[in-house]
Every structure is written in C-alpha cells, then in structure tokens.
Amino acid sequence: MVGGVIKGVKVHRRDVVRDRSSRREGRLLSNHLGRDLTIERVGRRGKQLMISFSNGGGMIIRLGMSGRIALEDGSTRNPAPPHQHLVWVIGVPNHPERWTWMSFIDPRRFGGVYLFASIRDCRDRLLAGLGPEATSIQGRQLGDLLGRTRRAVKAALLDQSVLAGVGNIYADEALHRAGLHPARPGDSISAPEATRLAAAIRSTLRIAIQAGGSTLRDHILPDGSSGAFIEKHQVYGRGGAPCHHCRQPLQVLQIASRTSTFCSTCQR
Questions:
Q1: What gap in Å lies between CA 154 and CA 171, rounded to an integer?
Q2: Mean pLDDT of the chain
Q3: Integer distance in angstroms from the first to the last C-alpha of the chain?
Q4: Same-domain pairing of 80 and 159
Q5: Which residue range(s) make up the domain with 15?
C-alpha cells in the first residue's frame, strides 16, 4: 500500500472511529482518514497497525478480538462482507488506472480506527504506556519487568504496558516452550528463567508470524487465507489432550480472566 493515494473513504459505522481528540462522535474530516493523501509508511507497535499519511497525520488500527483488514482488487470487487465498517479506495503505486479496496471488518467491534495529527501526537496519546516490543525482548529486560510484580507471569505477559505484542495464544505457547508454569508470580522468575522465557517469546512470535497467525474463528489474512500456526500449537486449545513431550494430559486454569493451558509436568 505504500506510495498509494487514497482516492476515497467510506464510513459505514462512525462509532468505530476515534477522532483526533479520541472521541467517537467528534469532528471527522475525510482527509483525517487519508482522502487525497499518499500512504507514506505502514508500521507496527505491539499489536497495533500504524499507517502514516503524506501530511504527517495518520491512523492506528486496533484489531481487538475479531477485527481484520481485507484487501481486494478494485476492478473485481465482491459484495461487501458483513461487519464492514470502513473502506478506503487506494490507487496502486505506479499504476494510476488500478486501485485496491482496503476494508476494516470487525464483528464484535472491540477494535477500532484511531486518528492522529502527527507522529508526536501518535506517540504521546495513542502509544503512550506500551511496554517494550515482545519480538525483540531480551532476558535481562524481561526479568526486570517481571521482578516488579507479584501477579502471575501469564497475567504480566498479557499486560501491554509490561510487554507489547503478546496475546493469549502466544503467552501459553511461550511459557510452555520455556517450561514455566503460568501461575508463577512474576517476581519469582530467576534471571536464567527470564532469559529462557524471552527467547521463547521471540521464537514463538517469529514462527507464528511466518505462519500467518492462528485462525480459530475470526482471524483471516488480508488476502482471505487462514493463519496456519494453529497446526503448531503445543498447548493452546488442547486442554485434556496429551502433552506432545511427556504425554500427560494438559491442564486448564483461569488467569487474568483468560483460559490458560499448560502441562503440569513440563511446567512445574
């Protein structure tokens, strides 16, 4: 999408958009959503997608539990899917006669589109409070972060102010790779264990991203394909099934109001 000009924007549900003052029903101008502007950069911070426009503004897209981005060839566009809340018509770079439809789709509307006026506005208002990136976290830094809390290590990993980018599936998978029980207090994790966990987080996310994530119900890639990491799950969603390593039945706990699956033998 980088280099493409946004030729038009359709807003089907206004309440999924937060304006530059973070209001759902405040003033919303079409150029705030990118109309007639060039997409200069597409990036990511934690689990949030950032799209920057040629006027210095842009938008953060938060997918939440069920949101996704869909891309379609503008010349062969299919009927609008259910729960399509916003559509951008984007010119294809170096091909002025072609365009792409980019849609934000979110059945449960836990996600949304958040507009910013500048990179500083984005950093100070929308990205403030996020912890370090999970994809590059190192053991010493993770150990310092976990050492500040008595919460269960699983709950700490899900807290985006502690570590940005880990969700429920990947916390379970990383803890299993590291051999750590999800209910362990954060400040009980030793330096060697933190190093092992940081490596497990990085490798789990790297493999999951390469596989396109995990399609359980709502998650679909922008081209409509499913994420294949579900085929590599060691514990998540497998409660009661045998552990792939020791063959003991996997256990299930509720931690931070989320289901946690683990092996009581491999993760003491």
A1: 6
A2: 93
A3: 47
A4: no
A5: 6-126
Looking at 126, 143, 175, the residue that finishes a domain is: 126
Q: What is the arithmetic mean of pLDDT over 138-144?
A: 98
Greater pLDDT, 223 or 111: 111
CB-based contacts of 223, cutoff 8 Å, min separation 6: 71
pLDDT at 241: 97
- What residue ranges in the chain does DSSP mark as E strands? 6-11, 17-18, 39-45, 48-53, 58-62, 68-73, 84-92, 95-105, 112-116, 251-255, 258-262
Helix (H) or strand (E) holding 205: helix 191-210
The answer to whether residue 268 sits within a structural domain is no
11 burial class (0-12, 13-18, 19+ CB within 10 angstroms)?
A: middle
Whether the CA torsion 247, 233, 184, 259 is positive or negative: it is negative
**SS3 for 214-239, per residue?**
ECCCCCCCCCCCCCEHHHHCCCCCCC
pLDDT at 130 over 80: yes
Strands (E) across 106-194 are located at 112-116
- State the Cα–Cα distance between residues 81 and 222, nearest whole angstrom: 13
pLDDT band at 234 (very low <50, low <70, confident <90, very high): very high
- CA proximity to 262, closest of 139, 152, 165, 131: 152
Contact 182, 253 (CB under 8 A): yes
State the total domains in the chain: 2
